[in-house]
Design brief:
Blueprint: H1 2-12, E1 22-26, H2 41-50, E2 55-57, E3 63-65, E4 68-73, E5 79-84, H3 98-109, E6 124-131, E7 134-139, H4 146-149, H5 160-166, E8 180-186, E9 190-195, E10 208-213, H6 217-226, E11 231-232, H7 240-244, E12 249-254, E13 258-264, H8 274-283, H9 286-293, E14 298-300, H10 322-331, E15 338-346, H11 352-364, E16 368-376, H12 377-384, E17 395-401, H13 407-415, H14 433-443, H15 448-465, E18 468-474, E19 476-481, E20 484-485, E21 488-489, E22 495-496, E23 501-502
Helix pairs in contact: 8-10, 13-14, 14-15
């Protein structure tokens, strides 16, 4: 109750700006606003309004120039020459030019900076300034997904001046080229961005966007219904009928590229045994979770990532077969089951706690006694991101949206052995030499048919090896009040607020 009162007080606090702020309630708070250091969608949703990339993936899934004007690739695929748009400045007045691009790309790939997503561009060997608005990227080897990776939000352009001025505090003082400029941030309470008056494109539709972290579903929905939040993410399916009956609210179901799974840590017994991992997959009724927990807002996973991504190869889902699960457990030496802990975030994914509770109940039927540990999103990332020597998490929920449209980003950061946390996003510490070789080779081959074949082989191996409990591709349920105009929800769970505004 105290949290709700605090939130309502903040939401009703008048701003100096004449226009009412457009208020977006998320399930958690941002972790960092340094675009190069962002590894999750909550921070990414805010950063998307402030920062821009050289290229962008449109809602239709095509890759188009954004801050770039054009590009050219040498015949051997090792030199990419990028021409930039002219006349653009960062929010602090720093010119956006070839020198700024060189600074950004070199900062992003510098191993001393330890940016988790640096693997996206780690085949860039040198960045050369050709003239004020032209850069040439020399690669250490052919790199098929480079263009897609230059559209990823973590490769966005940040102000060199601001980075040098703020140093380690830059994450709280972001400066980009986007339609909004950072205004203020009270951690755990609210974060505001304001219209950038000198934006190079069409002006943003709203003067102020206010983001508020509200992990509790009931509180988040109450703010939407009362009109004290205009947009809320992750609407619980059971609330859809009630919200949809409200003439002032629209619940938008957007197809998603976000796959939800439970990863197993093979360093913690008994999950080093593939039979145990497969047993859990047989023990869980994924379709029932989609139907009754998600209310149909999703589809059962048929691969480690979602359909529509290059390299997708559908598999036969593990059927719900408790008897087969028990047989595998007995064969692995656990005829009576075992005790473990399932970690789950709160307010991050659609029905995250309810999904974990359903899994807990179903695996209990085959003798696996799993207690549930929950954390709010920022703490969850920190807890699950500890290095192997300090990480005692046996199994945990995670989700991944493939925003680049390419299987490299869907698989390499999560399942390649070079990407173990804290240096990458492989939180399970999964290692498989065959998968490593397939994923590494697929990055360096220009022939798309051959790349697709390598990804198909990797998916076949991963499906059999079961490093995850493969759950579902999550649909996105976004609550939007009718006074909100021109808001765009991306399949990656991003929300584009540049043109969004409140009707008079």
């Amino acid at each position: 109750m105290h949290r709700l009162v605090l939130l309502l007080t903040l939401l009703l606090t008048p701003l100096a700006a004449a226009q009412t702020p457009l208020i977006v309630a998320q399930g958690g708070d941002a972790v960092t606003l340094d675009a190069h250091d962002i590894v999750e969608a909550v921070s990414g949703l805010v950063s998307r309004q402030l920062h821009e990339t050289l290229f962008e993936v449109t809602p239709a899934g095509t890759i188009e120039p954004l801050l770039a004007e054009d590009y050219d690739v040498s015949e051997d695929g090792l030199t990419w020459t990028i021409t930039l748009k002219e006349g653009i400045t960062f929010h602090d007045g720093t010119p956006f030019n070839a020198e700024a691009v060189k600074f950004n790309l070199e900062r992003f790939i510098d191993p001393d900076n330890g940016f988790v997503f640096s693997f996206l561009l780690n085949r860039i060997e040198t960045v050369a300034v050709i003239d004020e608005y032209t850069v040439a990227l020399t690669l250490s080897g052919a790199f098929a997904p480079l263009l897609a990776h230059l559209s990823h939000l973590s490769t966005a352009m940040v102000s060199p001046t601001a980075v040098e001025t703020f140093g380690e505090d830059y994450y709280r003082n972001p400066v980009g080229t986007g339609p909004f400029v950072f205004d203020n941030w009270t951690v755990g309470q609210q974060l505001e961005v304001a219209r950038f008056a000198d934006y190079w494109g069409e002006a943003a539709g709203s003067e102020v966007i206010r983001f508020v972290p509200v992990p509790e579903n009931t509180t988040r929905m109450a703010l939407l219904e009362s009109g004290e939040a205009h947009v809320v993410v992750s609407v619980p399916p059971q609330d859809v009928p009630r919200l949809s009956a409200d003439p002032d609210i629209n619940v938008d179901l957007t197809p998603s590229t976000r796959t939800i799974y439970i990863y197993f840590n093979p360093n913690i017994e008994p999950f080093g045994d593939v039979r145990v991992r497969q047993a859990v997959n047989f023990a869980v009724d994924k379709q029932a979770i989609v139907d009754f927990v998600l209310g149909g807002a999703g589809t059962v996973s048929e691969a480690p990532f979602s359909p529509g991504i290059f390299g997708y190869d559908p598999q036969e889902p593990y059927p719900y077969d408790p008897e087969q699960a028990q047989a595998l457990l007995a064969d692995a030496g656990y005829p009576e089951g075992f005790t473990t802990t399932l970690y789950c975030p709160t307010g991050r994914y659609l029905q995250d706690i309810q999904v974990c509770e359903a899994i807990q109940s179903q695996i209990a039927d085959v003798g696996i006694d799993a207690s549930i540990e929950t954390f709010e999103w920022a703490a969850y990332l920190q807890r699950t991101g500890l290095p192997v020597a300090e990480n005692d998490i046996p199994m945990a929920m995670y989700g991944w949206a493939t925003g680049t449209g390419d299987a490299d980003y869907a698989l390499f950061p999560l399942l390649h052995s070079s990407q173990h946390v804290p240096n990458g996003s492989n939180r399970s510490f999964y290692s498989n030499a065959t998968v490593d070789e397939l994923l590494s080779d697929a990055r360096t081959i220009a022939d798309q048919e051959l790349r697709e074949s390598l990804y198909n082989q990797a998916i076949d191996t991963l499906w059999e090896d079961a490093p995850w409990l493969y759950l579902h591709v999550q649909g996105q349920l976004t609550g939007i009040r009718n006074e909100v105009e021109n808001l765009v929800v991306y399949p990656t769970q991003g929300i584009w607020l540049k043109d969004a505004s409140l009707s008079e």
